[in-house]
Each structure stands twice: as C-alpha cells, then as structure tokens.
Amino acid sequence: MANCGCKDHINNNTEKENEASDSLTRYPDGSVKLRNPHIQLMDQDILYHIALGSESHDLIEMFGDVKFVCMGGTPKRMETFAHYIMEEIGYKLPTGTTLMDISQYSYRYSMYKVGPVISVSHGMGVASIGILLHEMIKLMYHAKAKEPIFIRIGTCGGLDLEPGTVVISDSVVDGLGNSFYSMPILGKIVKRPAILDKKLARELKALASVDDPYDTTVGTTMCAEDFYEGQGRIDGAFCDFTETDKMQYLEDLVKKGVKNIEMESLPFSALTHLAGIRAAIVCVTFLNRLKGDQVAAPKEVMNEYQERPQKLVARYIKKYLQSKGRLSSFDGHGSIAVKSPRRFKLVQQESQTFE
What we know:
The chain is α/β, with parallel strands linked by helices. The protein is 35% helix and 20% strand. Strand 1 and strand 2 form a beta hairpin. The termini are far apart. Pfam families: PNP_UDP_1.
C-alpha cells in the first residue's frame, strides 16, 4: 500500500486552518480585523466604558504604535505599572507633563499609555474584564495597531505553592474543568475555546531569573465566577460544604495540574483567542489555598508580591523592543488627539452619565 502522507496532510490542514483564522482576525499588514461586520456601518463607534470614540478622537494618532496591552485588576496597580514600565524602557515624558489617565471621564477603568505600552485596569471578575476586552480589541482595530500582544498581570490564590510564587498560565479551565468560556447570547449558550499562546508563555518563563528570590512556574489556571463559594472558601456569608469537602476539591485540582485560582482568565483567554491576539496571563500567589482562605500577609509584603509579575512582563517588553530596535525610539503617540470637538464633548458626557 502506498504511503498516504497522513502527517503531511494533517500539517497542511493545520496551516490552512491557521491561515483561514488569520484572515478573519488580521488584515495583510497585521492590523486587527474585527469579527463584527456591523462596526463598519456605524457613524461612530463609542467605546463607552473607556471614554473614547472612533470619530471624536484620532485613535490612529493616539494608539497606532501600540504593541502591548497590559491589564490588571485595580487602577492603582496599573498606574504603578505604567510608571514602572516607563522607567524600564526609558520613555521620557515631554517637559512639564505627567502620565494622564486617558479614561478618567469614564469613572470605570483607568488607562495609561507609555510609548507602545497601554496599562489599563479591568476591575474584578468575568463581566468586568469582558466589557473591557470588547472595547480594547475595538480600540486596536480603530487604531490600526499591528499584531498587539495582550498580557494580564494579576493576583491569585495558589494551590500547593508558596505565597509570592509567580504563575504563568498555559491553559485555563472553569470551576467544572471546562476549557471554554460559556455565556448566553440571544437565549442560547455559546461556548468559546479558552486558549492562550503557549509560545508566549514559554518565552515569559525563559525570562525568569535564577536570582529571583521566588519561584516562577507554568501551569493551568482555574477561573472562578465568585471569590467565596466559587473558589471553595469557607469564610463567606454562606457555606453549605465542610472543610473536608473543600480540601478534597482543592487537592483534586492540584492532581489535575491546576496551579492557581483567579477570576478573569476565562474571558481573557477566550476573547483574545477569538480576536486572533497573542495573549498571556502572569499572576502572583497571595496565599496557598491548601493552608487557608484569608489573605493575611502585611501590606508591604503584598505590595512587593504584586511587583513580581510586573518585573517579568517588563523584562519581556524590554527584550522585545530591543530586538526590534524600538527601545527609546518613540514617535510621540499617546496624547489626546481630537477629531471632532463636538463629538469629543458628546463622548465625555455620555461616559460620565452613570447611576
């Protein structure tokens, strides 16, 4: 029997599938293409929750040079990261200026831009980060940013890991062990694969230093939809299970390779994958869940822990920019650029309207 060349056939099919996927999510120049035909028909696309608009602001001028979108839970953490990455990549602000919260009029998220890096807060939980991801992906589309990389910088509960351990996610599951993001759309459940860029995870892990006074590991992350019962905690207002039940569940997660638990990885991995955007998640553990439920470390210790993922991500960004000859060679993008004063005022007013 002649050799059917099955391996070559599979490889060819995989390449064709990748090319087909790329054509759905990227234009030939590498800029982001939306999987939504309705956006192009709109007079203006208002990015309501970050107080920007496609016709009120010159988004190409403001964000066209963006390569990295880094997001984390709190406004303060991402402001701190913005200042940190500014020092690391040698970005200099014009004399007499300071870093500006670009989304200050939204009162929902905070966003800073440092050269080719955006630092933006995403709030807590699946719904909050999902809203931000829709608008950040659309922002990259309107800005014509080429092949942006999204990185979530977060905190988490570790499983059989020492507090302060850095965890790089290479896969994500929900509380039932499913590797997809499930949500009801028009009365039907839609399941979207939760897939991260494993190559990016390996590249980040390779930058962990033997001189770091903490461990950096790679593994599966569980995304919970709740901080208390959904993560098996017994210290919430309600609890219908025992300590023994909790420990059995957590130990089972460890056996399945789950390294940590947090609350945003599922939509983050699913929506970036759907958009064809390379993405990674780097978190630090605040506690070992096998030894307790409450975060009890002193504030100064917690602050130092939060710097650890930032350092690793900064190493990656710095190395990437060096390899491309872009370190300290910035062209002034990032200040507010207004297309239409009337629409600019309207967007601000609309974003400020909240109950």
